[in-house]
């Protein structure tokens, strides 16, 4: 034996059931082991706190809209190190409730005290779904976005917080979110295909050797092993900070979320079709890239004085720790200027782990010559 | 946000309690998420099946001791791909029960069928602690060894199987196990110290920048961040296949286990003192290495015809996937021929995850000159 003693996937053994947002029942302990525990490390907090695009957006959103905070009550969902709660207090909040499920809550409490805000910021260790506040709040602030926005399913907790604790005229920070999709070129497609081929070649050697030396025929595993490796190398999305010139066609929006009104049902399924024109000459369509942006606009009754945007789009200078999620085609396809792609996308939560996603792409290509490429489909996993 | 949605540590939220071998109650779902799921991947099975030292030892143990298997009933604890169960059947077993907790059981069943042994080998999907067999068995075979033998705490399941299902005159495969410890030299000590220094330098920059740009003083986290990083870089044991010439003093045995009689209490604490002489000239004592061997000797009443040994000691040509566990000292100490080390070792299970270990070393050095170095202690984590 010998393994990592660290999870590499979810478990479907539900024991203590909690609402997993419409999916199968979720074991809280398993969810903690698989998900939350990462956030209990300061190293991981530092990574997020070092993302200047992320930090600048939230910082400006708060300090350029002090009217939303001055004398108000604020709830920070998943406060982590406590940074957003502290900024809210520095911007003049009367009271800030900072909820955190992991032991990081203890560090957040120390940070609040070191910054002399312990009379304003109250750190509460517990999961948002279980916490009771003494009052409703004027503002909910949260940095809940995962890869391609919805991975981690943390927005569920924000919705729960909003429905229970936000005043009717309260505002959400951020107030809006959008998911984007675009066709891309990437050298990773060749590399991953070559990695996959290598692991399969190696498998055949292994089957031969096991038969020769140990008298057992393992060839029955060839298909499931190939499926497992195909999923790993070819069907799992990749983290990448793309250069903008790798985007070969117009990006399209596949989901818009109003954080004030969205329900869990709204985000369980993401289904959209977009049409995009290739604007690069003679290039390779290697796959899709997905990213998101969020906006801080306040609400209709209570708008922002200064609207702020946080985007994770491909950028030469302003990459984020979210990067983009890349879904590669094998093999890539030759395309050229004015070829049109019609892309159908459907994203759902994984059955085994409600914080992970499965995504289907359907694509038709209408070449500028008039020729049509029959539709093709690809399935990917956001792990 | 954004994280791995994969565990990087255990959880202490026990919901469904099972016997965790004398430690705190264990949540089965959490244990599955943290531990078992790795074994559900064929890629991981292939890694173990490609370890020639491991494979040769078990293969020879079975086929050079067919008298233990011919016409007998066998239980394979944690069969994985099913290899040991299949060999047992090929060596003439009348019936083999092959127990596996993960979905790998389904693959094992296919492999058994593809090798036409389905009338002899019965694959049972379930955890050993929960399984009921229709009869007691003559042989228990299992490959239960983790890094430094006891990591993963899988021997608990073997003990459980033995106490419930082994006939009074039954035999254990393997029958004996030993843990070894030796002083080593290693260039990794410098590298890890430099990695640690780098991460701490970077931290101070981060604290300055966060204060300058975002008005929050993070210096309160300097101590806990340093502790966290020290644990990660300097106090976590490393996997390494050492060259034999990196062993600078005699190796000593710190634990001997008779698999037929050992109890969980016997393996919960490993405490020993060994004395070792440095046999290298003018070298650096960079830390300790731990490894194990197991033996296939049958039992007193029913001995092996051919005793087989599986060792994971440092070897130029016969490295294993277990390698050795390396515990580095910072800084290393200069030592020379005939200097004597008295090493006290104490290993326990981690409170947070009963499959991980904590280990304390105490060391005194009696230089060949007669000079004594006062004792020093170091704590490490086997993660």
From TrEMBL, chains A, B:
Residues 1-20 are annotated as: Disordered. Residues 1-18 have a biased composition (Polar residues). Coiled coil: none annotated. Pfam families: PrmA, PRMT_C. InterPro entries: Arg_MeTrfase (IPR025799), PRMT_dom (IPR055135), SAM-dependent_MTases_sf (IPR029063). GO terms for molecular function: histone methyltransferase activity; protein-arginine omega-N asymmetric methyltransferase activity. Its EC number is 2.1.1.319. PROSITE patterns: SAM_MT_PRMT. One of its GO terms (biological process) is methylation. Keywords: Methyltransferase, S-adenosyl-L-methionine, Transferase. Residues 194-361 form the Protein arginine N-methyltransferase domain. GO terms for cellular component: nucleus. SUPFAM superfamilies: S-adenosyl-L-methionine-dependent methyltransferases. Ring-like homodimer. This is Protein arginine N-methyltransferase PRMT10. It comes from Coffea arabica (Arabian coffee).
């Amino acid at each position: 034996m010998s393994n990592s003693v660290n999870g590499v996937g979810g478990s479907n053994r539900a024991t203590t059931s909690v609402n997993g947002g419409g999916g199968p029942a979720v074991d809280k302990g398993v969810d903690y082991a698989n998900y939350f525990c990462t956030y209990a490390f300061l190293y991981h907090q530092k990574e997020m706190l070092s993302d200047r695009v992320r930090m600048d957006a939230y910082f400006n959103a708060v300090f350029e809209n002090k009217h939303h905070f001055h004398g108000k009550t604020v709830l920070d969902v998943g406060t982590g190190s406590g940074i957003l709660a502290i900024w809210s207090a520095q911007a003049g909040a009367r009271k800030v409730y900072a909820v955190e499920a992991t032991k990081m809550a203890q560090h957040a409490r120390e940070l609040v005290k070191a910054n002399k805000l312990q009379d304003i910021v109250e750190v509460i260790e517990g999961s948002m779904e279980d916490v009771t506040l003494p009052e409703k709040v004027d503002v909910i602030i949260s940095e809940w976005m995962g890869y391609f926005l919805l991975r981690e399913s943390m927005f569920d907790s924000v919705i729960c917080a909003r429905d229970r604790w936000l005043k009717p005229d309260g505002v959400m920070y951020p107030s809006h979110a959008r998911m984007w999709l675009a066709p891309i070129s990437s050298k990773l497609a060749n590399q991953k295909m070559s990695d996959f081929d290598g692991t399969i070649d190696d498998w055949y050697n292994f089957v031969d050797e096991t038969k020769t030396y140990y008298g057992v025929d393992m060839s029955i595993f060839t298909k499931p092993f190939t499926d497992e490796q195909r999923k790993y190398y070819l069907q799992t999305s990749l983290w990448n900070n793309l250069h903008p010139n790798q985007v070969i066609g117009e990006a399209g929006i596949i989901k818009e979320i109003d954080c004030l009104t969205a329900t869990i049902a709204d985000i369980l399924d993401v289904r959209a079709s977009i049409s995009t024109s290739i604007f690069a000459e003679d290039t390779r369509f290697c796959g899709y890239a997905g990213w998101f942006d969020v906006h801080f606009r306040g609400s209709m009754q209570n708008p922002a004085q200064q609207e702020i945007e946080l985007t994770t789009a491909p950028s030469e200078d302003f990459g984020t720790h979210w990067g983009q999620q890349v879904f590669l085609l094998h093999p890539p396809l030759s395309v050229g200027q004015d070829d049109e792609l019609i892309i159908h996308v459907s994203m759902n939560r994984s059955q085994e782990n409600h914080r992970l996603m499965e995504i289907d792409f359907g694509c038709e290509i209408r070449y500028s010559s008039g020729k049509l490429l029959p539709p093709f489909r690809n399935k990917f996993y956001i792990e």
